[in-house]
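Intended use. Records like the one below are meant for learning the mapping from a protein sequence to its folded structure. Do not use them to infer anything beyond what is encoded.
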Amino acid sequence: MESTNENEFDLTKDAPPLADTFDVTPMCDIAFLLLIFFMMTAKVGVNADVEQPAALNADDVQTNRVVVVLAQTDPGGEALLYIGDTATEANLVIGDLKSQEEQIQRYIEESVVRKPDIEGIVLKADKRLKQKYVALVNRAAYAGGGGRQMYVGIDQE
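Structure written out for the chain above:
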């Protein structure tokens, strides 16, 4: 039986050699698709317990030589600001942001006049405190503290 089709295999000596390779492009495509699929569906452990390193550049703060402003976040996400180290109603700073800033500035100025050896201003806050309140206390500390250092302490709980 003689074949009339030239594309069939011809095993004679004069036949061109068969290809030793095959196309790996489809296999690479599948491998990359699987890689992308597994990367997109993997759950990353964001709540893993990681030991936090100690701060290398923190300064020790002596509590008798600082002015303290206390900030607690209410359930609505807004801050309750207190002048002093205790969260009592007498120490609560009330009003809009501008008046709160003025009250904190006056408190810091009076504290610095009473105790000239004050080294800095400490903001004690919880970890949910919004940045606008940190900025508010920072502005008040800068204006009322006479260039003294401001420290921020965060309660992690």
